[in-house]
Each structure stands twice: as C-alpha cells, then as structure tokens.
Amino acid sequence: MIINTAITAFLLASVCYLPPGKASAHPKEEIKGSLVIAGGSLGSSNKDIYESFIKLAGGVKKAKIGIVPAASGSLKSSKEFRADLVKYGVKEADIKILPISNHNFSDTDLDEKSWKNNVHSKAVVRQIEDLSAIWFVGGDQLRITDTLYDAKGKSTLALEAIWNVYRKGAVIGGTSAGAAIMSDVMIAGGDSLGGLKGKFTGKSESAKNKEYEPVRIEKGLGFFQYGIIDQHFDERGRLGRLVATAVNYEKQKKKYNAYGIDEDTALIVNNQEKTAEIASRGGVTVVDSSKAKEHKGKINNVSISLLSPGDKIDLKTKSFTIHSKKDATKGNEYHQFKPLEATGVLTSYGKLKPYLSYSLVDNSSTDSVKSYLYDSRGSGFSLTFSKTKQTNGFWGYQDGQKDDYSITNVKMDVAPVSLQFKTDKQAFKHYQESNFALPKRTERGTIKGNLLIAGGALGLSNEDVYKKFIELTKAGTDAKVGIISAASGSLSSSNAFKSDLLKYGLKEENIKILPISTHDFKGTLEDESSWKENRNRDGVAAEIKNLDAIWFVGGDQTYITEALFNPDQTESKALKAIWDVYKKGAVLGGTSAGAAIMSDVMLAGGGSLETLTKGFTDTYNGMEQQEGGPGYLERGLGFFQYGLIDQHFDNKARLGRLIATAHEKGDRNQLSYGIDEDTAIVVNNLKQKLEVVGRGGVTVIDLSKVNTDPKIKSGYKNILLSTIAPGDSVDLRTKGIHISPHKVRTKGSEYGDFEVAPHSGVLTEHGTLSKFLSYQLVDNSGEKEVKAYSFDKGKGVELTFRKTKKTDGFWGYKDGSKDDYSVVNAVLDITPIAVKNE
Q: CB of 631 within 8 A of CB of 617?
C-alpha cells in the first residue's frame, strides 16, 4: 500500500511502529520451547488447552509458571488463571504473578505503575529464569510491549530473560492480547473494514468515519517466528484486517502465512519440529498471501484455509495434515442447493466457516459464493470465495454428531462496491400467503409431563441438557426411554443417542428404538418401511405406555408426522399412547426435526429471507428445502401448547421465516421461540414455565404490538425481540422473562460507546443475531439503533433494531471470563428495499 507523506510522519513517531516490510525484531533461530497461543475468551473448562500448557511446562509436578498481568486493567484475570491452573493440578506455590506492568490495577491498593522498573531488575530476571512456563493474560497488547520494550524499542532485561528460558525449552502462552504479542508484526487494533480500505496507523487516532477503525500495527515480541497472528478471529470477523495486514506487512509471503485464531481455541506450536496443531473448540484461519495482488482497492488471489481441532500445520512447507477421522468432500459433496449471497442476519450459515463449509465446499451446486462488508453509506467491498483445483473440504463428526469441517485453499477476491438501499413498497407484491389450514385445537386437559426441546447439533458433552432430560423423567437413571428414529435416513443417530444415554448412566435394557417409520433406513438388513402399520398396532402402543420418556431424533420432520398421523390426519394409536404417557408425567424430547414437530404449526422447510419476502409454498421437495426457498408448513404434533417453535436458529438464521409464520399462523397472545443449536428449552407444563439450558440461546419473538400495512408485503413495525441464555426463563402465563441472577443490568452502564456499521455478511463483528444485538446495540451507548440488510437479486429487506424505554440488557460471565448476555424487548422494524450496486 502507499501511505502519503503527512501520515507517514506521525506513524513513525511511534517507537514500535512497523512500516510495511520491516525486518523482524529477533532473527530466526533454533528454539527448544513451545507456544500455546489462545484466541481469547478461554473457558475455565477448556481442558485441552490447560492440560497442553501444563504438560509442555513439565507436568503438574514440575511446572513452574509465571503469569504476566501487564495487559489487564486489574489482577482479576491473572488470579483466575492461577486458580484454573491449580484446579488442573499445579501447586499454587509453583505459580507466580510476575510484578511486570506499566500501570496500576483497579482492584489493588498497590502502586503497580512502579513495576515498570522491574523489567530492569536482576531479581525479576532471576525469578523468570527459574520458570518453565510464562503466560500473558488478555487486555491491551500495547501495555505488554510498552512494558517489555524500553523507550527506544529495545528489549529490556526481563524480555531477554523470557527469551532465554524460551530458547532453552520453556513454553510461552497467552490469550487475546497475550496472543497478539506473539508475532513480530503485532495487530494492536482496527477492524476488517478499516483494513480493506487500506487504513493503517502506528498510533492511537480517532477515525474520521467512526463506523470502522484503521488497523494499528506495532512491533510484537516475536515469539512466533512463522508469520502474523490475529485473535478473537471468528467472533469479531477479522479476516479482512488479517488479509490486508498480510498483504501489506508480511515481508516473506512465500515462506510465511498469517493465522487467525478463534476464541476458546489455541494454536500449539512445536518449534523443534516446526509444526503447529489446532486445539480445542473453535478453529484457525490460515491466510496465504504469496500470490495475492493489490490494485486500486482490489485484493485478488488470496488463499484461505480454515482448520479445526486436531488438524496440523507444517510451518516449513505451509502444508496441512487434516484429522484422520475426516473424509474429503471433493467429488462427494453432501449438499446440492443454490446458496444465497451472505448479506446479513438472515443468511443461513452466516458466519465465515459454516458459510464456506455448507454453501461452497460441501455443495456441488456452486463454484463460488459472495458476501459483503460496508458502512452505513453502502461504501465497502464484495468478498468472493471460489473453489479452485487446490480447494478441498473435509468432514467428520465432533462431540457426538455435530458437523466438523476443515477447508483448504479457497480463493478469496476483494473488490470495492458502493451499494444503495431504497425503500420499495412494491418489492414483494408477489408474496404468497400460506394456504396451510390451522389444525383444530384439541383440549388436552392437565398435562403433568414436561418437554425438553433441543435446537439441533446437540453435543455429547452437553451435560446440562442430557442430565436435565434424565432428571425430568423422575425415574432418573432407572428411566425407560423410547427413541423414535422416523425422521432420520438411518439408525445411526438413534444408536448414537442410545449410547449417549448409557454414558450418562441409563441402563441398556431400558432403552428401546421404537419400530415407527414410513421409510427404509440405510445400513440395515431389515426393511423399515414395513414399520408403517406399526403406528396402529396395539403392541407398539402398549410398549409406549410403559415408557418414562420418548426422544425424537433429527432428520426430516415431515417423516415424523407422516409416521404418527394416519393418512386422514387422525391420530394413530401410537400417537395417542404418546399423549397418554405425556399427560400422566412422561418427558418428551427431541432435537432438530424432533424439535420442529413440537408445536401445532410445524415449520417444515424454507429459508429465512425467502420466506419473509416470497412467502409460502404448498409443495415440499425434501431436505433441499431445509436450506432455502419459500416457507413450507405442516401440522405438528402439538406437544408444546404455548406458541411456535423453530430450530437450528442461529446457524441457519431463521428469524425471517419464524416472523412470517408467526404473523400468518401464530396466536398474537403467545410468543414464538427460535432455539439455537446445542441448546434446549425445558417446559414445565404444571408450572407453565420455560427455561433455557445448554450452550447457546433462544430468540423470543412477540408480535402482540406489531403493525403492518396490507399494501406493503413483508413490512413490519414494532416486533419485540428478546434473546435469552441458559439460566433465563419465561413465565408462559404472563410472558414475563426472568434473567439469571448472575447477570447485572447494562442499561445506564453500557460498556461500549461507538458507532456501528450495518450487519452485512460473514465479516461482521459479533455476527450472530444475539451477539450483534448484545455488543452492538444494547450494551453500547453510542447507538440507539443498528441496521442489517439482507437481499437477493436487487431486492431485500432493511432490518432496523431499536432500543426503547422497555429495552433492557443483562451481562455476566460464564465458564471463566466469557461474556454472557441476555437482551429483553429490543424492537425490530422490517422495510422492503431495492438494492443497487453503483
């Protein structure tokens, strides 16, 4: 890039600023020590990362660990990391918080600012030289480098001591800011939009356009000698800033890549073997800019790879070894659907890795997909991701039956765009209302049983959900459980769920796969299509009546209703038996398709943007319609009596289709619920209470105050949205939302104060709906409203999320120091628009 001379003058005033192509601070050398570089938001329960760090430090008996607190504003995170290490077996006496800082901490009475001089202290040097491991906590990475470099940018005695123990075999680790300092080129601030616009700086400065920040580049500590590191990567949509930084600041592009590490994930580096492995819960994005070209705002031919836990990198050859349990998708793609461009919160698989996995690499129907990143004026970039001959995908299961992808060598091209959004009241004049006839409501009387409804992709390790299901049976580990496999194409998911229940203490003889299906399963000798008549066999009904719990596995929800309703839509004997045990106290549960069947109106197919803007169809073409197209409704089984249910809500971005369905077919006096993956709602019918358990959240939609104009299709005003989290609950009688007591109210004490660019695609920060509302709107005093645009072929919708007097936000920590938000009564307006690319 070219920086004009006026800007260059003040950039070089920063002692540690690295102009493009500057040589590294430390020559490449043989190092015996290792690195554990965590992307931020490291969970206390993240066993893989903690145990890897301790093992590399010498094990619980030999480890001597020093914690550098310099990045943080308090000693809290250092003390918590020490407590975590003790929990994992390290002796507290062998863990020291090193007196290294350039500022005071907010939670002590000491003058830690004086610790700045300790970096020249021989006593501190001796303390460091006795260590087998050093950990840098998160906060502000500039505080670390300012502390460990002197005023001339030279290494202090303390930094040289850290280098010495690292060379001899110590492990160095860090999270968030403690990861950012690992490479020579340190990214100290800024975002993707600023980076792609070519805005770089070497000092703190106020951006002229406050919707994006220039990328601040400084000199890091250089422990990672194989390229540039970025962190909080997926959550904060930082691919754009890493690509721009790699193109402009990596001097040896053919030799080194750039690495973006997701939250709660680590890159573990073996310097002696010159390899790295991805560990734990997220992924690492690898940017290869060796063939990239930059010209007039365009960046072409960047190669990106997205690696998962267990994958390895050869840092010498830049080659990858994918986990052996994954199968290559090339030539054997699972999906065949035309993906929409990733344009905002209504895009299925709208975050970077899921979007490229499902919509591009494991999809035979397309060779390229597109997303956007722009400011509120529509000025920004189109991002095109393409398959090449070198592109490959790898798929397997993780944590039970959750999809786990790795992707190698997708081509990324960036080009400037200028989009214009204009209200178009006639944009969707051909919207088709649903012809689905609401089923007649049957009065069921008192229901003593409970429901556990999971949003899909339920992890085997999701202890809260499994234990709650078993607890609800009242018989506990002696419970008799029936599994209905009708939704699936095979018995694998039923057998897997049975295995999961055994691991949580149930008895094998008490778990039965019920012979209920209308189609044959793959991989079995029996023809299960012969089970069709079992729905009315007395023996099957009798078996059901002896159960304490029934579980519906995932797949295609229409198969479940087909298997349990008679052709004339009356209830089969099997369905009546399920209702009988449910009313008497049995628990009913299900995941994915097994969640969709729970309400009277069943959302059986359709994409979010297409349902909201095109309406509904009377035809269903199977699993392909799970990925897009107009909405398709059928009659559900009606076990959930309090509104509508949708599932896979976060990953498949189903806000639009749930709103459209609730508006046409819902009861305005009831709420509608979108359940995220690996998350469940627990419904207590006697108490009429709904509680959230698991790992994600639940979006609650209230249309009781909505305003619409019959002449404007897909236009809505005053939709109330709440996003609630595990521990939160809903009173189903009053519709009141109760927030977990560990959270504090953010209203009047917002953490953020900044302007927000629209949600525009896969590089939007905090890209899921709940995170976007939490970070960008409710816990941000700088905005009263934020926008998102979703569109296809020049037509779409503007989504305006607003705060009112009734909007409230709540924040706390979970699993260590991970942010945990709930939002109550944000307001959403939806306006049809025409979109023009200038």
A: yes
What CA–CA distances, in Å, run from 193 to 417, 695, 761?
12, 30, 12
Q: What residues have CB less than 8 Å from 781, skipping those under 6 apart?
A: 750, 752, 753
- What's residue 163's pLDDT? 98
Distant-in-sequence contacts of 505-511, Cβ < 8 A, 24+ apart: 505/470, 505/477, 506/470, 506/477, 506/479, 506/481, 507/477, 507/478, 510/478, 510/479, 510/480, 510/481, 511/480, 511/481, 511/483
Burial label, 537 (beta-carbon count in 10 A; 0-12, 13-18, 19+): middle
Judge whether residue 10 has pLDDT over 70: no
- Residue 209 is given by DSSP the state S
Q: Is the pTM of this model over 0.85?
A: yes
Gap between the Cα atoms of 801 and 819, Å rounded: 21
CB atoms within 10 A of CB 719: 23
pLDDT of residue 210: 86
The DSSP line for 507-552 is -GGGEEEE---SSPPBT-SS-GGGGGGGGG-HHHHHHHTT-SEEEE
Tens digit of each residue's pLDDT (9 = 90 or more) over 645-669 = 999 999 999 999 999 999 999 999 9
The structure tokens listed for 735 are 């519709």
The two beta strands, 689-694 and 729-731, are antiparallel
Is 361 within 8 Å of 335 (Cβ atoms)? no
User: Could you please report the per-residue DSSP string of 450-463?
Assistant: EEEEE-S--BTT-H
Res 4: pLDDT: 33
What DSSP state is assigned to residue 358?
Answer: I
Using DSSP's 3-state secondary structure scheme, residue 427 falls into coil
Closest alpha carbon to 186 in 206, 172, 200, 168: 200
In order of their start, the domains of the chain are 29-318 (3.40.50.880)
CA distance 335 to 351: 18
Nearest C-alpha neighbor of 594 from the set 534, 551, 540: 551
Count CB-CB contacts under 10 A for residue 802. Answer: 17
Residue type, 753: D
Tell me which of 17 and 597 has the higher pLDDT: 597
Rounded to whole angstroms, the Cα distance separating 189 from 141 reads 9
What is the pairing mode between strands 402-423 and 298-307? antiparallel
What was the pLDDT predicted at 5? 28
Is the per-residue pLDDT at 410 higher than 80? Answer: yes
- The tokens describing 387, both together, are 């398959």
Q: Give dist(CA 351, CA 764) in Å, integer.
A: 8
Average pLDDT over residues 707-732: 97
**Mean pLDDT, range 830-835, rounded to an integer:** 98
Neighbouring CB atoms inside 10 A of 13's CB total 10
Query: Is the pLDDT reported for residue 2 higher than 80?
Result: no
Given a cut of 70, is residue 17 above it in pLDDT? no
pLDDT in tens, 90-118: 999 999 999 999 999 998 888 888 899 99
- What 3-state class would DSSP assign to 5? helix
Q: Please give the pLDDT value at position 441.
A: 86
* Cβ 106 vs Cβ 76: under 8 Å: no
Over the range 463-488, which residues count as b (16 or more CB within 10 Å of their CB) and which as e? ebbbebbbebbebeeebbbbbbbbbb
